[in-house]
Design goal:
single chain; Conserved hypothetical protein from pyrococcus furiosus pfu- 392566-001, ParB domain; five-stranded mixed beta sheet; alpha/beta
Length: about 290
């Protein structure tokens, strides 16, 4: 195979579905009913199968009309069938009381199966940062395994992948970087408690450094983008430790505060005024100023 990332589009879902099956007596595109008990999830499946409102609706639909779209599976090494596409349908079929579901059995390599698995799920609207991150990484590595290169050809592999997924190349790279975060930090990104850009810089820290940073975050000190970049730089130089980390976090925090020294205010107040009295007057004047502006 020509190692050209420009040929990324040649690895299409339709072509992969055309791979003949190795199961005796089963045509490559024949739909068969398989027992749910013989189906198991794709290895390292990055997409969550949630028992939420959408799942309940899908189960109701299957209960009334059956599974209308067959899943795609491949024979398992230890028996049974690994689900390539159709994890939610399999779960919903079980909730609907079915014991089987229709599926197409395919003899797929790990890379071919990964491309189908990602492509069949990636357009979901409710994907988390974690799901996208691991899905993008899995597809990127699968395409390289299929013979595509990120250094040869007319187009970088990550750029071609970005065009397929409707993302920018930089964003694809940032999503993949999230897979280097310790699970607790990645969970904070999903919970919108840690910024996406900051998290990508933090991903360059060692696991031990990330665990240390997590202690600061648990104490209420969440790094800004500027802080995360500094942490990354110090980590790269091998100079990041608890003391340096604390100084970086506190320095940035102080830099974002307005500090007025008491001696700067003395000329504007009577000598016997306490600091609290000065503050009362300042806030009273600020309220008046705000009122007049409106």
């Amino acid at each position: 195979m020509n190692n050209s990332a420009a040929k990324i589009k040649a690895v299409s879902l339709d072509e992969l579905l055309g791979v003949s099956t190795a199961v005796p007596g089963k045509a490559g595109n024949e739909v068969v009913e398989l027992p749910l008990s013989q189906l198991y999830p794709f290895r390292n499946h990055p997409f969550e199968v949630r028992d939420d409102e959408k799942m309940a609706e899908l189960a109701d639909s299957i209960r009334n009309s059956g599974v209308l779209v067959p899943g795609i599976v491949r024979p398992g090494e230890q028996g049974g069938y690994e689900i390539v596409a159709g994890h939610s349908r399999c779960r919903a079929a079980g909730l609907a009381g079915l014991s089987t579901m229709p599926a197409i059995i395919k003899d797929l390599t790990d890379a071919e199966a990964t491309v189908i698995m990602v492509d069949s799920n990636i357009q979901r609207e409710d994907l988390s940062y974690k799901e996208k991150a691991f899905a993008y990484k899995m597809k990127y590595e699968a395409l390289k395994e299929l013979g595509l290169s990120d250094s040869d050809g007319d187009k970088r592999l990550d750029q071609a992948l970005a065009e397929q997924l409707g993302e920018s190349r930089n964003k694809i790279q940032r999503y993949i970087r999230l897979t280097y975060l310790v699970p607790e930090l990645l969970a904070l990104v999903d919970a919108r408690k840690l910024g996406f850009i900051a998290a990508t810089d933090i991903s360059y820290l060692t696991a031990a450094e990330q665990e240390l940073l997590l202690q600061f975050i648990n104490d209420g000190v969440v790094p800004t983008g500027a802080q995360a970049l500094k942490l990354k730089e110090y980590s790269k130089d091998g100079k990041l430790n608890e003391t340096v980390m604390e100084l970086i976090l506190k320095q940035e925090k102080t830099a974002n505060q307005l500090v007025i020294k008491t001696k700067q205010l003395r000329d504007y107040f009577p000598e016997d005024y306490e600091v609290s009295q000065m503050a009362d007057v300042i806030f009273m004047l600020l309220k008046q100023w705000k009122k007049e502006r409106h």
